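Dear colleagues,

As part of the handover before I leave the project, I'm documenting each prediction I ran so the next person doesn't have to rerun anything. This entry is a single chain, and its sequence is reproduced below.
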Amino acid sequence: MSLTEISLNIPSDHMANVFGQFDTYIKKIERTLNVTVVLRGENMKILGSERQIKRAENVFLQLIELSKRGNVITEQNVNYALALLEEEKESAIVEIDKDCICHTINGKPVKPKTLGQKHYVDAIREKMIVFGMGPAGTGKTYLAMAMAITAFKN
């Protein structure tokens, strides 16, 4: 197996958000994708097999894009980006983030967080009646209420 290297420029104002406290997100990506990440200022080098560094680069680019849109990157975002990578739906996390249903009183946007939630919200927009079934705590009622409030306001 030959080692390859790729360079990626990370804007300094997004570094802390994308890398996590004590670089925990970098370490998680390194372990999961079997790559090595070396930081030098705003420049980041990813070392590993060609396929794995392309996958790692894609995850970092997705996280940077989320950060640029004003999102606080959480471990859930990193885990979901890595999971979508396995399903070969790499750009889905940025597509999901584009869909803003409404804003809370504090101004926080209400958005779907997973592909399932995105499909659910799209079904509510398209159909008169939608039945949502699934485990407790997955956002069914929350998203349905956000959609109802938006429809009422409109």
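Helices lie at 12-19, 24-33, 50-68, 75-86, 92-97, 115-126, 140-153. Residues 7 and 135 are 42 Å apart (CA to CA).

All the best with the project,
I.
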